[in-house]
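Lecture 7 notes: from sequence to structure.

We start with a single chain of 226 residues. Read the sequence below before looking at the structure.
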Amino acid sequence: MTTVLLVDDQTLMRVGFRLVIESEPDLEVVGEAADGRVALDQVAALRPDVVVMDIRMPGMDGIEATRRIVADHPGSRVLVLTTFDVDDLAFAALRAGASGFLLKSSRPDELVDAIRTVAAGTAVVAPRVLRRMLDLFAPHLPAARHASPDGLDPRLSTLTPRELDVLRLIAEGASNSEIAAELVVSETTVKTHVGNVFLKLGARDRVQAVIIAYECGLAGSSTPRR
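Now the structure, written as tokens:
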């Protein structure tokens, strides 16, 4: 059973989400919160698998709440909700550690599928959608740290040449099957490389790995699109 905490300052939104989620036999809403500060208390007490987080709330917003949840309760993954498909606040929430974002106008089946996907440890932002977001907001990313003698950001220094290739392709929006075709290896091998990249970078999922690639200067608007 996947447990879910709903965080939204609008009561009607929480009621609607609860009805949709609890219609699924494998999902359970274990709590609700109307702002980020209450959400932190609820996460600490309930340890939900997934937090469905609104961004724009009075008091502590969803970005700060996401940052604290990811830091203090890594077992709880955050799915942020936004009204706009390219929202600077949604992007900030991804950088804060959210595992993906979903439009509030999404269909009920998309919501429950996203919750299951996040609970399974996979990002719910389609790679190419993420790429468009990052291209839009790349100018606001922090400057890359001082490069090592080999020209790489220190965060990438532990990656092998093949793992760097894999990270570049992930940042271009390539799926595992596309990476396998590009590098002429099996998908099983790609999965191993992707797992190693996540482990070495301390990335929770593809979303975080792509953001790190942008921050390190490994990817950017000049990188060819697939």
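The first strand starts at residue 2 and ends at 7. Keep this in mind for problem set 3.
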